[in-house]
Amino acid sequence: GQQLNQSPQSMFIQEGEDVSMNCTSSSIFNTWLWYKQDPGEGPVLLIALYKAGELTSNGRLTAQFGITRKDSFLNISASIPSDVGIYFCAGLFFGAGSYQLTFGKGTKLSVIP
Amino acid sequence: DARVTQTPRHKVTEMGQEVTMRCQPILGHNTVFWYRQTMMQGLELLAYFRNRAPLDDSGMPKDRFSAEMPDATLATLKIQPSEPRDSAVYFCASGLGMNTEAFFGQGTRLTVV
């Protein structure tokens, strides 16, 4: 099956710093999704990207759908303590009756006040 | 505040017992997914439904797992008999279609002893 390589696995940063994480795949996707998961909760959608090259922002978050359709990155600017959590990328491929939503292993973000 | 509702939030059961997890998708959503999350494997897609019809359950161990949608407001995931290796957090998610983002419930944390 398809696999996503998400990096880094974990990050420790100072409050106020910018953060960058990315996902790569050997397969192409139609859609890239970025989720955040807090302890004891389900993943919450942050940003959805539908077109190769698309750059989308949601507040302090910015994500891009790679031109090759095989990668995506998420940037968080001016991090704050509530950014702590696990961030997941997910690649969606659909077509010809098939559907595959594959998740990366996650990036655990810790913010030091 | 539309959200996916899962019950129970936590379940501890003995090996061999039947477990049923329930999910109420967001009203109007026609696609329902079941995921399993473990530390080792991350988020794995078990099954998904569109308009209550099962489209793919290849991610599920067929001999013990079954997923159904008795009606548009209820999806169930059943494990019979349960085994310790089934211990995980099970998430239900719903969406408006196959090519759009999925919204997750808070999950059912299952522990099989």
Short summary of the structure?
The complex is a heterodimer of chains A (113) and B (113). Chain A has 113 residues and is an all-beta fold. Chain A has strands spanning 4-7, 10-14, 19-25, 31-37, 44-49, 55-58, 61-65, 71-76, 85-95, 98-103, 107-112.
Description:
The complex is a heterodimer of chains A (113) and B (113). In chain A, β6 and β7 form a beta hairpin. The termini of chain A are far apart. Chain A has strands at 4-7, 10-14, 19-25, 31-37, 44-49, 55-58, 61-65, 71-76, 85-95, 98-103, 107-112. The radius of gyration of chain A is 14 Å and the shape is globular. Chain A has no helices and eleven strands. Chain B is mainly beta. Helix content of chain B is 0%, strand content 55%. The interface between A and B is medium-sized, with 24 and 20 residues.
Q: Please give the oligomerization state of what you see.
A: heterodimer
Runs of chain A in which pLDDT lies below 50 for 5 or more consecutive residues are none
Sum up the overall morphology of chain B in one term.
globular
What is the gyration radius of chain A calculated from CA atoms? 14 Å
Ends apart, CA distance between termini of chain B? 36 Å
Number of separate strands of chain A: 11
How far apart are the first and last residues' alpha carbons of chain A, in Å? 40 Å
Helix/strand structural class of chain A: mainly beta
- The residue fraction in helices of chain B comes out at under 10%
Q: Count the helices of chain B. How many?
A: 0
Kindly estimate the percentage of residues of chain B that lie in beta strands according to DSSP: over 45%
Give the averaged pLDDT of chain B, no decimals: 92
Please identify the structural class of chain B as seen in this structure. Answer: mainly beta
